């Protein structure tokens, strides 16, 4: 059987990760690989393949799986950097963007932290409003400062 490799940029993969995690918030029993495959199929009909025919990019699988597994610890980091907010008051899109960027900053050392921050702001441009973008920038800048001083 022929394997089909998904050729997307890292930015596009972040969008797929965002969309997959967003959908999984409402389908908690969904398998990660099935959710990724479904999200990919929404982006491009050529990705509508049987799971065994689709080669999921490593980055995508690592990020989605990692965020789902480390959600509690990521949320603790987020809560520590919220000023006058509770995590349950955050828009779901903003929360996912924060989790994605913080996961990259803490666990994916091959990605510069400032790239993760800038990519989060790009996601916020698409999935949030200007106020949320500023909020996300503030939280992530604070997290980044703690990472650089090794207090996270």
From TrEMBL:
The protein's matches in InterPro entries, at most eight in alphabetical order, are given as: NusB-like_sf, NusB_fam, NusB_RsmB_TIM44
For the biological process aspect of GO, one term held by this record is: DNA-templated transcription termination
What keywords are assigned to this protein?
RNA-binding, Transcription, Transcription antitermination, Transcription regulation
Q: Name one GO cellular component term.
A: cytosol
Is Transport given among the entry's keywords? no
A GO term, aspect molecular function = RNA binding
Q: Which residues form the NusB/RsmB/TIM44 domain?
A: 12-144
> What does it do?
Involved in transcription antitermination. Required for transcription of ribosomal RNA (rRNA) genes. Binds specifically to the boxA antiterminator sequence of the ribosomal RNA (rrn) operons.
Q: Provide the family line.
A: Belongs to the NusB family.
NCBIfam families given in the database record: nusB, PRK00202.1-1
Name of the molecule in the record: Transcription antitermination protein NusB
Q: Which organism is it from?
A: Vagococcus bubulae
Gene from which the chain derives: nusB
